[in-house]
Structure prediction request, 317 residues.
Amino acid sequence: MGIDEGRIRRLVLAGVAAAGEGRFLPVGVSARHVHLSEADFKALFGENEQLHKEKDISQPGQFAAKEKVTVKGRKASLENVRVLGPFRKETQVEISLSDAFALGEKGTPIRLSGDLSGTPGITLTGPAGSIQINAGLIVAERHAHFSAEQAKAFGVHDGQKVSVRIEGRRPGILEDVVCRVGSGHELELHIDTDEANAFCLANGSLAELIVPETGRMVMPEAPSPEAKKALSPPEKKNRPESGPEGPAVPAKPPWEGKEIFDLLTEQEVRAAFKRSEQKVYCSKKAVITPAARDAAAACEVEIVRLSEVETKKWKIE
Ligand SMILES: [Zn+2]
Prediction:
């Protein structure tokens, strides 16, 4: 028996995650396949037949069988679709969206494995006969598998939706990746062939797990440490004595309670204008898009960076 490289890799990646040095998932690309109930298998392959293992796959206990079927849609058929073992309670056919179009089965829903209520059926053909299943045709929802221990190392829980960042020739971020945690699961991000091709990914590629907020570049509710520093009142020695003739330094910084943007686009400027605000506030190193500057000029909204505010000691009102 050879060295299980996949297992070694998962151990290393879980160790790296536990050490807080990056949460990387190995990618597993799922080609179209079917899971069969024992009764459906017998109808397709014969009463006395059984599944023959071709090779193990990453998820414990599951394997690719030598057996293949034809999936027949309204418009076309897909031949040599691999059967995965062992038998399942219900037959399930997993195809890509491209396959759904080719088959003439455009309504195929995106579902997690096993969530088959209300899904369409399809015709399957094997060497011993054909069957029409009433439900079970799906496009698999993107998901990631974790053992309980791996989930701990990665800081995720069962059912949680996370994002993953892809680097390389076609970089990008995949959102709404459902975490599936428990025994019977092994560290792997599962996507289908459409998604793999869109991001130039192959089996064994790495994807980085990121928190959804980071992926969407949404400004956190709480100000960043840098913004907090800028928000704190100036040193006491600089603060003038209050009195009837004291300078008009407001009691609160004018941006208190306002959002401080790290990325300012036209959208935020227009939203501020709609709220009748004359200023929008950005962090020191914020990215301001050209369209945001144009919109600010057109709406007469002033873009204020916190660094400028700091030097003026609030005297911007
Ligand atoms: Zn999976």
Q: What stands out?
A: The longest helix spans residues 5-18. The pocket of zinc ion is lined by residues 143, 145, 190 (CB under 6 Å). The first strand starts at residue 24 and ends at 30. The radius of gyration is 28 Å.
